[in-house]
């Protein structure tokens, strides 16, 4: 099976993970950190906003089942790419909107999706998603993996993640598992 990997930061990694677990063609997803200066950071360190890392999901997908364009469309639809260092009540550089691309083709695909969104006036404010070359991914602690699946009744999951999942199923019902 052919696989492609892209690393996406769209605020809380629990939210992004829960959504991408529902997307057809996603082979695996890991929550973690990218874009900072500290090796092997802990969640507690990243939460300080001092390490420079973003909370990210590393999405491995089969491009024969789901295109990179579709992966990026889901990403942009399910977080606010127009706010700097903020997603809802989550504030700090660790919650920034960012794509860590591995190839020039991935970089170009992100730029094309952003152009489409801007041409369609999808958002009333400019898209501020950062686009950075991938350097390293640090997997978050085990309790962050499959977080929503393991904690669906936790208040954050019910109030923040469940509505994102509903939005995903409404907008991308033909792409859901």
Please, could you describe this protein's structure?
This protein is an alpha+beta fold. It is globular and about 35 Å long. It has helices at 13-20, 43-47, 68-77, 104-119, 147-150, 155-171, and strands at residues 4-10, 26-34, 54-61, 86-87, 90-91, 97-101, 130-133, 138-139. The protein has a single domain (4-175), classed as Peptide Methionine Sulfoxide Reductase, Chain A (2-Layer Sandwich), CATH 3.30.1060.10. 38% of the residues are buried. Strand 4 (86-87) and strand 5 (90-91) form a beta hairpin. Helix 1 (13-20) packs across helix 6. The strands form two sheets. Strands 7-6-1-3-2-8 form a six-stranded mixed sheet, covered by helices on one side. Helices cover 34% and strands 22% of the residues. The protein contains six helices and eight strands, in the order E-H-E-H-E-H-E-E-E-H-E-E-H-H.
Q: In a few lines, what is going on in this structure?
A:
This protein is an alpha+beta fold and 177 residues long. It has helices spanning 13-20, 43-47, 68-77, 104-119, 147-150, 155-171; strands at 4-10, 26-34, 54-61, 86-87, 90-91, 97-101, 130-133, 138-139. The strands form two sheets. It has a six-stranded mixed β-sheet with strand order 7-6-1-3-2-8, covered by helices on one side. The protein has a two-stranded antiparallel sheet with strand order 4-5.
């Amino acid at each position: 099976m052919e696989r492609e990997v892209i690393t996406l930061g769209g605020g809380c990694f629990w939210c992004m993970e829960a959504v991408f677990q529902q997307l057809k063609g996603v082979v695996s997803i890991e929550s973690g950190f990218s874009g900072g200066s500290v090796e092997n950071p802990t969640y507690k360190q990243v939460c300080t906003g001092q390490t420079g890392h973003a909370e990210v999901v590393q999405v491995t997908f089969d491009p024969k089942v789901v295109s990179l364009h579709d992966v990026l469309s889901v990403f942009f639809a399910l977080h606010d790419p127009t706010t700097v260092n903020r997603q809802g009540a989550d504030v700090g550089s660790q919650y920034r909107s960012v794509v860590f691309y591995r190839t020039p083709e991935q970089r170009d695909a992100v730029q094309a999706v952003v152009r489409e969104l801007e041409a369609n006036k999808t958002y009333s404010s400019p898209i501020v998603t950062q686009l950075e070359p991938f350097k390293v991914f640090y997997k978050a602690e085990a309790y962050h993996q499959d977080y929503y699946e393991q904690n669906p009744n936790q208040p954050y999951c019910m109030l923040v993640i469940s509505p994102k999942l509903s939005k995903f199923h409404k907008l991308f019902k033909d792409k859901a598992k």
